[in-house]
TrEMBL record:
GO biological process, one term: porphyrin-containing compound biosynthetic process
Domain Radical SAM core: 46-291
Any one Gene Ontology cellular component term annotated for this protein: cytoplasm
GO molecular function: 4 iron, 4 sulfur cluster binding; coproporphyrinogen oxidase activity
Name assigned to this protein: Radical S-adenosyl methionine domain-containing protein 1, mitochondrial
Protein species of origin: Lupinus angustifolius
SUPFAM superfamilies per record: Radical SAM enzymes
Job of this protein: May be a heme chaperone, appears to bind heme. Homologous bacterial proteins do not have oxygen-independent coproporphyrinogen-III oxidase activity. Binds 1 [4Fe-4S] cluster. The cluster is coordinated with 3 cysteines and an exchangeable S-adenosyl-L-methionine.
């Protein structure tokens, strides 16, 4: 799994985003005056999420051949011989602890439903032997139930699977593959510390196609050291030529403690400048949209009908299970994260089995925090924030505050207001649409960020919404 400028929800449990240098630079160049003051909220309705049974599970398989230079995720490096180590005791031992955690998890829902999505992330899940993946899936099936038509996704890296392994995974039910290509240049792959080269990339794409995997994604990273616009354009062209049904585009984030964190400073050579990073994002949006990929989420593009169902659970603020090292759950309105170190994780599982911890009783979320989470998650998507639903949950005053804060950005085109038919509302029409409660055809229904300019400002615009909610 990769980090992007817009940090993946699963790993950070919905934190409030900070303005990135890229966002601040674009904001400075676009607006010379400060935004207008936000109207004071008279009240904020207390809203508690409807407690429903999760229908999705994230499974963390932390094994990699080696750690990439940008990675700060909890992983276990197996070494270069890992492809031949189907009986590696480290893998077997971890899978046993993982299944123990699943079995020890409390299920206290009257409306228990079978899992509709399962996502194997890592790490490099494709290093795990199919028979162990089968054990995990069977454990999930026995504990929660597994829908016959469930989306079962697996992150797979080039050079870690062959056609036989791919076919075995498909027999087990894996029906969606996220292929960690990252770049189509040998130099960039090597400088990132990737365990695969360009030859393995093309072989992996051929395997996925020959095995007739219908639903598959290519993952790419922008803003890598020494990456040029020509390199990025080439990667996008080759991705489009490969014809995946989904593409994920992540912007490199330099993390402390990683090799890149020790070597580089964001925005300084050999990393691309902030303006270049913005150009990379715009290029991806333009080229993928021209190739009929829908930009349905900030870093996600798909052919029609191939949006990632599992990730959509996060954007819709729905509950989900998380199992394994460092993973996170969101259940019953509470957030809960597992330890990131292996020994601590094993102690956690022992305590879970002995009733000393409750994985469904984490930090509970209330009122303003929920409203902030809903805004952040909704504005990451092309659908945007459902104003009617938001107003019912949190009241009129908070909606007016958001609109007051966003008016300059509606005028500049970074924020788009839509009616029930998803037709754009002009700034001079906005007050009429907001105040007209009786006419459903003339009512503000959604707020979304424009693509790509609004998405580029997402951190700043979401932070602005937080200030409006918190005022």
């Amino acid at each position: 799994m990769l980090k992007s400028t817009f940090t993946p929800i699963l790993w950070v449990l919905f934190p409030k985003p900070k303005s990135s240098k890229l966002s601040s630079l674009i904001l400075t160049n676009t607006f010379t005056n400060s935004t207008q003051p936000v109207r004071q909220n008279a009240s904020l309705k207390h809203h508690t999420p409807i407690i429903t049974s999760p229908s999705s599970a994230y499974i963390h398989l932390p094994f990699c051949r080696k750690r990439c230079h940008y990675c700060d995720f909890p992983i276990v490096a197996l070494g270069s011989a890992s492809m031949q180590m189907d009986d590696d005791p480290r893998v077997l031992n971890y899978v046993q602890w993982l299944c123990r955690e699943i079995n020890a998890t409390k299920v206290e829902f009257d409306d228990k439903t079978s899992l509709e999505t399962v996502f194997f992330g890592g790490g490099t899940p494709s290093l795990v032997p199919p028979r162990m993946v089968s054990t995990i899936l069977e454990t999930l099936r026995m504990k929660f139930g597994l829908s016959e038509n469930a989306e079962i996704s697996m992150e797979m890296d080039p050079g870690t699977f062959d056609a036989k392994k791919m076919q075995e995974m498909m027999v087990l039910g894996v029906n969606r593959v996220s292929l960690g290509v990252q770049a189509f240049q040998e130099k960039l792959l090597s400088s990132c510390g990737r365990a695969h080269g360009l030859k393995e990339v093309h072989e992996a794409i051929d395997i996925v196609k020959s095995c007739r995997v219908e639903n598959w994604s290519i993952d790419l990273i922008a803003s890598l050291p020494h990456q040029t616009c020509e390199m990025w354009e080439e990667s996008l062209k080759l991705t489009i030529e490969a014809q995946p049904t989904h593409v994920s585009v992540y912007d490199l984030q330099i993390e402390q403690g990683t090799k890149f964190g020790n070597l580089y400073t964001p925005g300084e050579f050999p990393l691309p400048s902030e303006i270049q990073s913005a150009d990379f994002y715009k290029m991806a949006s333009r080229m993928l949209s021209d190739a009929n990929y829908n930009h349905y989420e900030i870093s996600s593009y798909s052919k029609s009908g191939y949006e990632c169902k599992h990730n959509s659970i996060y954007w819709k603020y729905k509950p989900f299970y998380g199992f394994g090292l460092g993973s996170a759950s969101f259940i019953g309105g509470s957030r809960f994260s597992r330890p990131k170190k292996l020994n601590d994780y094993m102690n956690f599982v022992r305590n879970l089995e002995n009733g000393l911890v409750d994985s469904s009783a984490g930090d509970h979320i209330h009122g303003k925090d929920i409203a902030m989470d809903v805004v952040m998650l909704s504005l990451r998507t092309a659908r945007g924030l459902d104003i009617e639903s938001f107003k019912e949950s949190y009241g009129n005053s908070i909606v007016f505050s958001l609109l007051e804060a966003y008016k300059p950005y509606v005028e500049s085109g970074h924020v788009i207001c839509l009616d029930e038919k998803r037709k754009s509302i002009r700034i001079d029409e906005l007050d009429d649409y907001v105040l007209n409660e009786s006419n459903t055809e003339k009512r503000l229904a959604y707020i979304r960020l424009s693509d790509p300019e609004g998405f580029l400002l997402s951190n700043e615009l979401i932070s602005l919404a937080f200030r409006a909610i918190d005022s």
